[in-house]
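Troubleshooting: if your tokenizer reports a length mismatch, compare against these two reference records.
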Amino acid sequence: MTVNTLLVFGLGFTARRLAARLDPARWRVVGTCRTPDAAADLSAAGVEVRVFDGAGPPADGGGAAFEPALIDQATHILVSAPPGPAGDPMLRAFAAPLARRGRDLAWLGYLSTTGVYGDRGGGWVDEDDPLTPTTQRGHRRLAAEQAWLALAADSGLPVHLFRLVGIYGPGRSAVDQVLAGTARRIDKPGQVFNRVHVDDIAAVLTASMAAPRPGRAYNVADDLATPPQDVVAEACRLTGRPLPPLIAYDTADLSAMARSFYAENKRVRNDRIKRELAVTLTYPTYREGLAQIWRDHPAAAA
């Protein structure tokens, strides 16, 4: 039996759900995290992890340090670590060994964001639309996308881009916020967002690994862009908790990061993942996703 090796740069929420989806008899998954403490927690959960802080040589302050030889062992690579002011940390550290792999690698996925499209005033975007980011985060992601594609053009590396919308799932959802008493209903007239359940992201990545199309970009989003306050209201309905008051966006106390999300308003088309990857979303809207999260939540049985 052939055993593939998935190397994950940035073993976060999405990558861990993808790893859990893969058959351990057919897949070895090795991921990186930034600190020895995080590595210890992941290792305790049975995850094969290496420490790499993205800022320089592999860390050696505890935990197993990342070995660049893992790049040669990998059949598939997922890059989920975000770029910083100096660009993509994985490209800075490992562009040369990645380029040497070239077409020998079966698949490389880069997790980007629909922030690369910028603000569309509530209009629709698809993968062929111009990339005109309006936030610093969007500009960094676009620069990273372009750097990965440039490396692919020079080396044959099979790069695939996945532009994600707001990610939610168990432990990171409006249901969890409502139960914790931290949910807020922010009202900015006309504002809509798409979301995507983490398990649907994992399904898209799995489908792409099974049918690579190097150089392709995919929007990974649900079917329904909706005002954020509606999502909180649905979580309150499911859990039986009272609605938090509606807060006008102009007077809301928001962090700079949160406010940057509201600076862009668009509806994201997801036809390509359905047409080319034959993906059927398990959670086509936030309603199905939140309902499943609530059914599985310990508080639902209380």
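Reference record two:
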Amino acid sequence: MYKKIPFDEKELQVVDSAPGRYGGPPTEILNKPATGRENYRAFYEMHPYWAPNTGGADSTMICPAVIPDNVGRHFVFDATTADLLKENPNYDGVDMFGIPWKFVPQVGGSMEDPAYPHPLDDANDWEKVLKFPNIDDWDWEGSAEVNKDFLKPDKWNSISMLNGAYFERLISFMGFENAVVALIDEDQQSALHDLFEATTELYIKLIDKCIEAYPLLDCINVHDDWGSQQNPFFSMDTAMEMIVPHAKKLTDHIKSKGLVADLHSCGHNEARVEAYIAMGWQSWSPQPMNDTVKLYNEYGDKILIGVTTSGIAEDATEEEQDRAAKEIADKFCVPGKPASFRAMGPAYFQRQLYKYSRINFSK
């Protein structure tokens, strides 16, 4: 619950630093009046104390190795990551459905191994072809033990679910071409609804397991990419008919557990934001090819939007940094309609951005 705390200049004192996320520069930790966890909770109530810092000072993300997707996709972030990278810097493997993935060092990501065919050609055959995992067999106790100190009680703790339960997962089953056809093929749609219902139930169980293993979790982030750099992959009608009802069941479950439902969806998908809202996602950080300012202006009171900002150059004067920080805060640090963003710039700029966001949100 938000409570008004007037800004005090003493808050600008640097008391510590946090490692930058994804290898970025360290983030200063200021003398803030609330914890990062408290601030993010207030943020999702639409009235934070300051603009949430996405650089590592206020939040932690876990992608545990116990979930096979994270190893297969080369996306493990937990207490075992350092040892995993030391043993095999280019590790990859199979996901929870047994589909092999291949890490591509040149792009720092992974894709389904092209040497293996996708297992499903027709959605009508999914029950005969796909083998759903028994997630009870995974070593949850071992993961909980090794990660017992990974998440922090003063930080906003999220877990990221790769592939998700819908279109991304369908691509891994069928390949892209067959997946987009299945969404609009009347002969496959009924079976596809059954498949999405099954993957939804799987993810509900998976989320419950994660909550039990990592009790400090605050947020469930689910991946489902819907577009290319230019356009969405499918129409709004298709999204609303084929995916929205199932995803709404998933987000309802997440919220029933007292957690936040956060969406990761790459692509030029600004025309699908109303579908994201209908699904019940509470936040989405679009890629820069989207008009994030327009999205914020039109929908920022319905879903928390990650806005792309220009930041400011490292060699800018303090006067320029101060002016840029105030401009950003005045645009996006609005009580009842906050935005998330990662505005790049020098340490002085970051402190001033914090200051002006605090002043705005304390009004």
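Descriptive notes for reference record two:
- The first helix runs from residue 36 to 44.
- The chain has a mean pLDDT of 95.
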